[in-house]
């Protein structure tokens, strides 16, 4: 079944996010030799006759239609970046709200969350924006929680930080629509285009699989992996992803057969192991870098997890190099 996608371009949109979004849908169609996605690009400008929109880097994009011609779609992808915090258009807000009320999906790219928030669409969910706009967003919308993750998955609302994260979010959407086998094929197709290390590509794929199992679980793990030196409490992580401690505990028990705290500790200990093996940093510095109060406590946890002391692991590592 073909999914109809409407891509809205606001003046000052981020060209990279827009291009990756279009390319993801195009590659999905190409690999399956089927029209899984049909997309139409709309200009969000004051003049109904103006169908050329200028991006943040000055490149101009010819759109298919003006926003006044929009009728309906399964998913609206909103591309906004420069000027997003100041954007105000009540008529446009009504289009977004009507689409959502009628059961449609919404996705914001880069700083499109400002427009969703202004339209009152983020009251019961979290979101993300580009890092440079985070402080402004918190100032304008203090009641809305910003997630420290690549993208967010709410109730029919997706948001991402822009840049390469647009591709990560589109991979999630395509996987949700048509399964992980297709997203894995798309990932292979994009590997030569992404300026990422193999570790980053593998990590991105792991996050995608987790998100498809449970958006909240995937978001929690991403936050844990990004905050090792100064670990967050599970209460804070729950608030950040719009969940509760109880819900998070149930998710970790269901998918990992452990508690969130134990899983977080394991992530930190895996980082310890890598630093012990790959560097000559003193154990005290490694302990600090991985959120442990002392290297002796780190050693106790490490031995319980890996069956040996960090110094013994390091000694064997030196012996083999």
TrEMBL record:
<dbReference type="InterPro" id="IPR052158">
    <property type="entry name" value="INH-QAR"/>
</dbReference>
<dbReference type="GO" id="GO:0043565">
    <property type="term" value="F:sequence-specific DNA binding"/>
</dbReference>
<dbReference type="InterPro" id="IPR029062">
    <property type="entry name" value="Class_I_gatase-like"/>
</dbReference>
<keyword id="KW-0804">Transcription</keyword>
<dbReference type="Pfam" id="PF12833">
    <property type="entry name" value="HTH_18"/>
</dbReference>
<feature type="signal peptide">
    <location>
        <begin position="1"/>
        <end position="24"/>
    </location>
</feature>
<dbReference type="GO" id="GO:0003700">
    <property type="term" value="F:DNA-binding transcription factor activity"/>
</dbReference>
<dbReference type="Pfam" id="PF01965">
    <property type="entry name" value="DJ-1_PfpI"/>
</dbReference>
<dbReference type="InterPro" id="IPR002818">
    <property type="entry name" value="DJ-1/PfpI"/>
</dbReference>
<feature type="domain" description="HTH araC/xylS-type">
    <location>
        <begin position="218"/>
        <end position="316"/>
    </location>
</feature>
<protein>
    <submittedName>
        <fullName>HTH-type transcriptional regulator CdhR</fullName>
    </submittedName>
</protein>
<keyword id="KW-0732">Signal</keyword>
<dbReference type="InterPro" id="IPR009057">
    <property type="entry name" value="Homeodomain-like_sf"/>
</dbReference>
<dbReference type="InterPro" id="IPR018060">
    <property type="entry name" value="HTH_AraC"/>
</dbReference>
<keyword id="KW-0805">Transcription regulation</keyword>
